[in-house]
Amino acid sequence: NPHDLLRTPAGSSGGTGASVAAAFAQVGLGTDTGGSIRGPSTANGIVGLKPTHGLISRDGIIPLALSFDTVGPMARHVYDVAVALGVMTGIDSGDDATLKSEGRFETDYTQYLDADALDGARLGIARDFLDQDGDVDWVIEASLEVMRDAGATVVDVHLPEWLLGASGGFYITVRDREFRAQIRDYLVTLKPGFAKNLAELVEQSLRLTAPIDGTQPNPGRWSLFRQQEKSGTLSDYEYRAVIENGMPMVRTIIAGLMEAENIDAIVYPTSPRRPARVDVDLLPSGGRLRHSPARYANLTGFPDLIVPAGFTGNGLPVGISFLGRAFDEPRLLALGYAFEQLSKARRLPINTPPLEE
Question: What pTM value is reported for the model?
Answer without folding.
Answer: 0.94
